[in-house]
Amino acid sequence: MNTATTTVRTRFAPSPTGFLHIGGARTALYAWAYARHCNGRFILRIEDTDVARSTPEAVQGILDGMQWLGLTPDEGPFYQMQRMERYKDVLRQMLAEGSAYYCYTTPEELERMREEQRAKGLKPRYSGIWRPEPGKTLPPVPADRQPVIRFKNPIDGSVVWDDLVKGRIEIANAELDDLVIARADLTPTYNFCVVIDDWDMGITHVIRGDDHVNNTPRQINIFRALGANIPHFAHLSMILGDDGQKLSKRHGAVSVMQYDEDGYLPEAVLNYLARLGWSHGDDEVFSMQQFCEWFDLDHITPSAAQFNTEKLNWLNAHYIKQADNARLAALIRPRLADQGITVSELPALDVIVGLYKERVDNLNALAAAARAFYTEPAPAAELLAQHLTPESRPLLADFIAGLRDVAWEVPAINALIKQCISQHGVKMPKLAMPLRILLTGQAQTPSVDALITLFPREIALERLVRGISEKN
Description:
Blueprint: E1 9-12, H1 22-37, E2 41-46, H2 56-69, E3 75-79, H3 84-97, E4 100-103, H4 107-119, E5 148-151, E6 158-163, E7 167-172, E8 180-182, H5 190-200, E9 205-209, H6 216-226, E10 232-236, E11 239-240, H7 256-261, H8 266-274, H9 288-294, E12 305-306, H10 309-322, H11 325-338, H12 349-356, H13 363-371, H14 381-387, H15 392-403, H16 410-424, H17 428-440, H18 448-454, H19 457-469
Parallel strand pairs: 1-2, 2-3, 9-10, 11-12
Antiparallel strand pairs: 4-5, 5-8, 6-7
Helix pairs in contact: 1-9, 5-6, 8-10, 11-12, 11-13, 15-16, 15-19, 16-17, 16-18
Domain Aminoacyl-tRNA synthetase class I anticodon-binding: 327-468
Subcellular location: Cytoplasm
Family: Belongs to the class-I aminoacyl-tRNA synthetase family. Glutamate--tRNA ligase type 1 subfamily.
């Protein structure tokens, strides 16, 4: 297929039997980016024919995850359950043309068939007893059972395709038995629906996980039986966890929305996923616009990618530092509200964010830092014992006295701090540490002079006076 004259059309087609996890998100990102790179179209399709396992909650989770990541489809979402009549029309067509047939084998008969084959050292498979062939006499049709519909897979030759990630793959047709494409209740099966959808939607490039490699030869044969264009295939290798094992809930195989809850920015997650199996030289940090300009299928590694939480955290810290203060304030405000904290007008949340964002690697840590400005400080007893000593109280008292009249700006407060420690002959931490603890309850804060200016003067004085007056 010449993509120079054909509009590239990619798709992301998750099954709503669980959440959208990191592996699925990477697949969606690559399919979306390739469509953008080629000025093509990206389609979202929900493969919900597994009625027993599909749930509305899972569907919504997928839509929420895609929206949070900003992977907006050009078409869709389409739902397979709304396309049942189309599938049945094609099934009738294939039965009429002889590329599909009714099979009356029961599950019990199929299992006996496989047991006999295993006993002979053969690969267990459907024997083809109901497969029509010239000159073959089929068994009498049982009156007491509904048949499934099987695809009449070619017997000879092989299926060959040039996978855009894994290279040339060849599977002998003799390895493939006749696939069930519709159940006894006429509900079509996964491999059949996928082909019809990709055909109808004009999909040119199927980008998906390599757990689908075994499905591909079956699907290619169905495409051929229908006389449909066969898309290009690109199968992405799996993602391993930090420990090199298959990704589990301990390290990344959680809902994409869990990353939102854990305080990650979507652009950090996207940037990290982009590099999880693809590279552009040594570039580590880039925008999604740059990614779409650079992205191709040639530079996707065929080997497994390894998830690295430390690297993701580093990227998240980078994007938090770069983010607009007002945006960060808007993101952490609801996190504070969830803790029952009302953000007052002063001190201004965006100013607090601006001072603390250099020191955190997630939004929850930023919210925890901001919390101290809207709640009464509750320093740990051991911190008070360590830093609020009989020797530090006179130093604090002199500083508080000067704080009542000093200009409420960083340079003036910095000068006051230096004056007090010089007069008392002590080093900076002797004053800075108790100030941090009494104002915020925290031992680690940004520069103490900037910290003080975040509070209105009366609130800062109230906290400090109360702190040195209380028995500790």
